[in-house]
Write a structure and sequence with these properties.
By secondary structure, the chain is mainly beta. 5% of the residues lie in helices and 36% in strands. The strands form ten sheets. Strands 10-11-9-4-3-14-15 form a seven-stranded mixed β-sheet. It has a seven-stranded mixed β-sheet with strand order 30-29-26-25-34-35-36. The chain starts with a strand and ends with a strand. 42% of the residues are buried. About 3% of the residues have low confidence.
Length: 607
């Protein structure tokens, strides 16, 4: 379609058909997960990560093995992933690229034996309001997919049927399943796999004090044994157990053994389960086994950033930073400091400290928590280092860093440094996050979304488990208590957590005649009387009675509804038409012909 416009003249447009010249596809984009809903763990790492759980699924339809080494996946912000050297897809086989969170890359049984990789840039950055995806071999586009606004969509967009059909919502294509990375919509693999690796660890339990060769690993291969095979080894937590980088299975042999060394840390972190993985390129399915590393006596506590609330709903009166010592309890914080850093935000305050807090004289509580919090948190009865509201900046890209140093070391304007770093959290989604992570130089620094209703939480967290290797995910605000994942509470609960002491959905805490559930739906303050008018019914252009509700951002995931009545006693869906129910708007109308009719709306706030 070609359109033309000119001031003062009605616009016009015409169409032209472009006929395909018969090119055959070599690769298709089969599934894209760009809108990650709370509780949807696509990469199967145990948490919901609004960047890590994004994915693009590609399938080789060329009719032969396809070498995609050096090919790129690009979106509107630029290159998101470059396939490494040696990436070969078998005929009819799939590759899945996640935004992140996959501890072991390769052909994984958990994803239908598909080739699974993390985005080489650290994120896919797919835009929920619409984006274009290009798969390119150099300058040549080999596959692509463009989508419009999917804000609020639950699950991925997938071809139906697989490979050849148009894109639709995965839930519609697979009877309720939100996504199927690496497999067809029904869960079956795209291609069969002959060769695989198997790992066996003996014994299955060791102590962190057992030292070198505390356990033995055996890797076995299936298929042809004519040539020697170099196998890459990975431990998912090198602070507990380490393995050699590689082991070679000799020519003519199907197995090889390797040592597993126990690592004695000084942390009270409880028994830890570590996955030992073996991979040999895209031709083999990755093999895994686990070893439990027992904690040893005499360890001391450790301090980590456990939870951060940067942008509570309503107003910034419930911000906090929670530190955790692994459950040791009453750990002195002398010699520690928390420092807040800017990232690039277009205002000139780039990569410098904008606040800091010296923790000398403080200690964690009996359960191991210490909270630096704004006045709203302090009023909730939590023992905190009190700070006025609005002190954590939530716009742009920022970092919260914990140092083993005095706060005076970091005057306002100081550049971020890795010297003395203990832990760090970077939030925001632009490319500047990578610069902050490099400047801080800590492997525990992670990217996390700045959410209006979600905190940045270590999951699992707060129950004595070691957190150093755990990712951050969006969680329910729990300052001074065990972290709780989203999905265990309703959208209303998440919103209500920002108003300490708030009653239930049917209560009217501020006595303004508007119950809390409706304050939640409209984005009002339930603890201050609101004088604004509620949504009112009106006669629309079709002559029908209509009600339109502008949803608050925190309520976009809740269930809105409408009903009709003729006597204000019995309510039903008779002659009711829901015009729209998007992430931002709910609208319904009465389409009947009764001379008197009533129309009402509501919101279901149950989990």
């Amino acid at each position: 379609t070609v359109g033309v416009t000119s001031p003062g003249i009605a616009p016009a447009e015409g169409t032209i058909d472009v006929t395909d010249d018969g090119d055959s596809a070599t690769l298709v984009v089969n599934e894209v997960n760009a809108e990650v809903e709370d509780g949807r763990d696509a990469n199967k790492n145990g948490i919901t990560d609004h960047q890590g759980d994004e994915f693009v699924e590609l399938v080789n339809v060329s009719g032969a093995p396809l070498d995609i080494s050096g090919w790129t996946i690009e979106e509107s912000d630029g290159v998101a992933h470059t396939f490494p050297s040696g990436t070969v897809l078998g005929d009819g086989c799939a590759a899945v690229v996640f935004g992140g969170g996959i501890p072991v890359e390769g052909r994984l049984a958990a994803f239908g034996n598909a080739l699974v990789q993390n985005a080489s840039t650290g994120a896919l950055n797919l835009n929920n309001t619409g984006d274009s995806i290009f798969v390119r071999q150099g300058a040549v586009e080999r596959a692509g997919f463009a989508f419009g606004d999917i804000e609020g969509a639950d699950g991925s967009q997938t071809r139906d049927p697989d490979l050849t059909g148009p894109f639709i919502g995965h839930i519609a294509a697979a009877a309720g399943s939100p996504f199927s990375p690496g497999t067809r919509t029904g869960g079956s693999p795209f291609c069969s796999v002959i060769d695989s690796l198997t790992v066996t660890v003996t014994p299955a339990t060791i102590s962190e004090t057992d030292g070198a060769a505390a356990a033995s690993g055996e890797v076995a291969r299936s298929g042809d044994t004519t040539d020697a095979l170099e196998v890459a080894l990975v431990s998912t937590d090198t602070s507990e157990a380490s393995v050699p980088a590689t082991v070679t299975i000799s020519a003519g042999s199907a197995t090889a053994t390797f040592p597993i060394d126990a690592v004695d840390d000084s942390f009270v972190d409880g028994d830890q389960t570590v996955t030992i993985a073996a991979g040999a390129g895209p031709g083999f399915v990755v093999g895994t086994d686990q070893v439990t590393v027992g904690d040893a006596g005499g360890d001391t506590g450790y301090i980590l950033i456990n939870e951060v609330e940067v942008n509570p709903p309503g107003s910034d009166t419930a911000e906090f930073i929670e530190l955790y010592d692994g459950g040791a309890g009453n750990t002195p914080l002398d010699g520690y400091a928390v420092v807040l850093f800017n990232g690039t935000n277009g205002t000139g305050s780039d990569d410098t400290a904008y606040d800091q807090f010296d923790l000398d004289g403080f200690s964690t509580d009996a359960e191991g928590y210490f909270v630096i919090g704004s006045i709203g948190v302090a009023n909730a009865g939590i023992d905190v280092f009190p700070i006025p509201g609005g002190w954590i900046v939530n716009s742009g890209t920022r970092a919260v860093a914990l140092y083993s140093a005095e706060a005076s070391t970091f005057p306002i304007g100081t550049s971020p440094t890795g010297t003395g770093i203990v832990d760090a959290v970077i939030y925001g989604s632009d490319a500047e996050a990578a610069n902050l992570a490099a400047a801080l130089g800590t492997p525990t620094a992670v990217l996390a979304r700045d959410g209006e209703t979600d905190t940045i939480s270590r999951l699992p967290g707060g129950a004595g488990g070691r957190l150093a290797f755990s990712g951050f995910g969006d969680g329910l605000p729990t300052p001074g208590a065990t972290n709780q994942a989203v999905g265990a509470a309703s959208a209303y609960d998440l919103w209500a957590a920002g108003f300490p002491g708030l009653g239930g959905p049917g209560d009217d805490d501020d006595c303004d005649g508007i119950p809390n559930a409706i304050e939640f739906a409209l984005g009002l303050n339930p603890q201050q009387p609101d004088g604004g008018a509620l949504p009112q019914p009106f006669i629309n252009g079709g002559g029908n009675l209509q009600i339109t509700v502008d949803k608050a951002a925190a309520a976009s995931g809740a269930a809105f509804f409408a009903s009709t009545s003729f006597d204000a006693v019995d309510w039903s869906n008779t002659d009711l038409n829901v015009i729209t129910d998007s992430a931002t708007t709910f609208a319904a109308e009465y389409t009947g012909s009764a001379p008197v009719a009533l129309l009402r709306w509501g919101v279901n706030v149950s989990p």
